[in-house]
Specification:
Elements lengths: L3 E10 L3 E11 L4 E5 L6 H9 L6 E6 L2 E2 L10 E4 L11 H5 L1 H5 L4 H14 L15 H14 L4 E5 L7 H18 L2 E6 L2 H7 L2 E6 L2 E7 H16 L7 H11 L1
Parallel strand pairs: 3-8, 3-9, 6-7, 7-8
Antiparallel strand pairs: 1-2, 1-4, 4-5, 9-10
Helix pairs in contact: 4-5, 8-9
The protein binds adenosine-5'-diphosphate (ADP) and magnesium ion.
Magnesium ion (MG) binds next to helix 1.
Length: about 250
Amino acid sequence: MTSITLQNIDKVYSEGNQVIHDVNMDIKSGEFIVIVGPSGCGKSTLLRMIAGLEHISAGDLVINGHRMNTVQPQDRDLAFVFQNYALYPHLTVRDNIAFSLELRGIDKATRHSKADEVAKTLRLSEHLDKKPGQLSGGQRQRVAMGRAIARDAGIYLMDEPLSNLDAELRNSMRAQIKQLHRKLRNTTVYVTHDQIEALTLADKIAVMKDGVLQQFASLKRFTMTLPTYLSHRLSVTHPPTFCRSLFCKTRAL
Ligand SMILES: Nc1ncnc2c1ncn2[C@@H]1O[C@H](COP(=O)(O)OP(=O)(O)O)[C@@H](O)[C@H]1O
Ligand SMILES: [Mg+2]
C-alpha cells in the first residue's frame, strides 16, 4: 500500500531554466495515474524526481506520509520502466528479470523461481534462457516490465514504455499492462504523450503543458468535463469521438 503526494513541486535546471511549476498531486495507493502531454512539457522530469533520479528544486515529495526529497532512489521502494528497456545484453531473460533480486543478495534458487513465476505472468517462459538480442521488441519490453514486477516494489514508474513498439504491439501491451495492474494493484505513475494510452490505462489522468499541471482528474470526471473544456474544438472535430476529442484537447494545450 503506497501513496504519493507531490506538494508545490518545482524543477529548475541550471541557468535558471524552470521546467516544472508548482505541481500538486495526491496519488492514492493502488491508483494507475497517467501523466500526458506534449513532448518537452516536463513529464519525464516529474517522474525522475519521484524516482530520485533528479533533484527536486522546491516543494515536497511525500511517500506513505514520509518526506522523501533526499532519500536515495534504491530506498524509495519503486521500480522504473524506461522507454529504451535498458536490459543487460549479456544476461539471459531470467537473469535480467531477477537482476534486482541479485542486488539485494537473494539466493539463486529463490531468484530463479521468482523470475520463472514473473515470466509465466508475462508469457515469457519459453524465452527465459535467451539473451535480449534474440527477442522481438515486444518481448524485450515485457522483460523490462518483468524486471520491475520481480522487485515487488510499492510503486511502478513507467516512462513511455511502449513508444518503441508498432501500433499493433502497443495495443496488446496496453491490455496486458492493464490486466497486470488489476492483478498486482501497485501504485503506478505512467508517462506518455499518447492520448489513447492515457484513456485506456488511467484511473486518473494528469494533463501537463509547459511544466504546469493543467488538470488532474479521474477518467470519469474527465469525461464529464470534456465537453465544456473542448467546446470550441469539438465543433471542428469529425467524427467527434471521445478519443479524437481528447487528442484535439491535448494538442490544443
Ligand atoms: N538535464 C537537463 N538539463 C536541462 N534541461 C533539461 C534537462 N532534461 C530536460 N530538460 C528540459 O526540461 C524540459 C522538460 O523535459 P522532459 O521532462 O524531458 O519533457 P517530456 O518528458 O515531457 O518530453 C524540456 O524543455 C527539456 O529540454
Ligand atoms: Mg520524456
